[in-house]
Structures are given as structure tokens and as C-alpha cells.
Amino acid sequence: KKGFVCAWEGRMDTASVTLCQNSVVRSVDLWVFVGVAAVTSVGHSAFAYSGLRTFAWPIGATTVPRSAFANTYSLRGITGLEAVTLVGTVAFTSTGLESFAWPVGATTVPDFAFQWCSSLTAISGMEGVTKVGMKAFVGTEVGTDVGTLVGSGVGMLVGTLVGTLVGTRVGTGA
To answer: What is the distance between the alpha carbons of residues 43 and 56, in angstroms, rounded to a whole number?
Structure first.
């Protein structure tokens, strides 16, 4: 089968799986991780430049690493982020996401998190966010008032820095 698993190391309960770059995989569902004792980490750039359309995040992995899905233009949906507490820089940059449910336990939107996600029009679950990184939403369509997306702790900061965080698509009155 063309281009799915490049390497499988170890027993099923402690396996290390490496996916090939330019993989033909279109969807990774939760059942893929059944039988593996616990997927507790995913490497940086693990799915970058892939052809994934949907992805079910492993329940035991609490960090979405840097560049995890960078430049995965076909990516339309991610589920299972409920246990995530940390999202790395450029984790979702240049994806095809149209909406996104921010992980409740992650209080920081990192630098360039959704940069150039031109289809992104809605993001939910940002009430607990206390920090929004540099240019986190540049090139998106999440709206003109990013301050309404986040909790009261960062609303003032976002309103002040909106030009830096969101970019030129946001009007000066934001």
C-alpha cells in the first residue's frame, strides 16, 4: 500500500509509528490508536505537508507540537483535543480548517498558530485563553473583533494589539 507507514518499531503496546511525508493517508481516526497502550506524544511536524482531511487526536497526547499540521492544506477537521493543554507554534498554519474548537485546557494561543488559514471563519472555546501570540490569526477570517474570542483576561491586550495579532484583514476599529 503506497505511502502509509514508513516505520513501525517495537511491540504493538509500545510501538513507534512513523508516517511518510507526502502520505496518501486522508483520515486518521481514533481506532488507529486502539491496541496501543497509550499514545502520549506526537513529534513536531508529524503531519505537516500531509494529505490528511480529518484527524482524531490521541486521547493521551496532551501537547499538539510545533508545526504538527503545518501546510496540510486539505485538513478540514480535528477532533479529540479535549485533554490538550499546550499547542505549539505554527501548529495549524496554512491548513484548510474552516472552524476550530480550541482545547479548553490550553490557555495560550501560540505565535502563528492559525497563520494563513484563509478558510478559518469560526473559533470556539477561547474563554480560558489568557495569552494570544504574535500573528496567531493573520490571514484568517475569524472576525474583526478578536477580543470577543478570548476570556476577559486577555481581551484588552488583544484589542490593543489586534493589528499585530490578526493582520491587515482586521479593520482599524477592531
So the answer is: 16
Sorted by sequence, the CB contacts under 8 Å of residue 23 that are 6+ apart come out as: 3, 4, 50, 51, 52
DSSP-assigned states of every residue in 113-166: TTTT-TT--EEE--TT--EE-TTTTTT--S-S-GGGTS-HHHHHHHHHHHHHHH
Q: How many CA atoms lie within 13 A of 21 on its CB side?
A: 5
**If residue 35 lies in a helix (H) or strand (E), which one and from where to where?**
none
How far apart, in Å, do the first and last CA atoms of the chain sit? 50
Nearest Cα to Cα of residue 105 among 78, 79, 124, 86: 86
Tens of pLDDT along 65-101? 999 999 999 999 998 899 999 999 999 999 999 999 9
Distance between CA 73 and CA 69 in Å, rounded?
A: 9
Beta-bridge partner residues of 78:
55
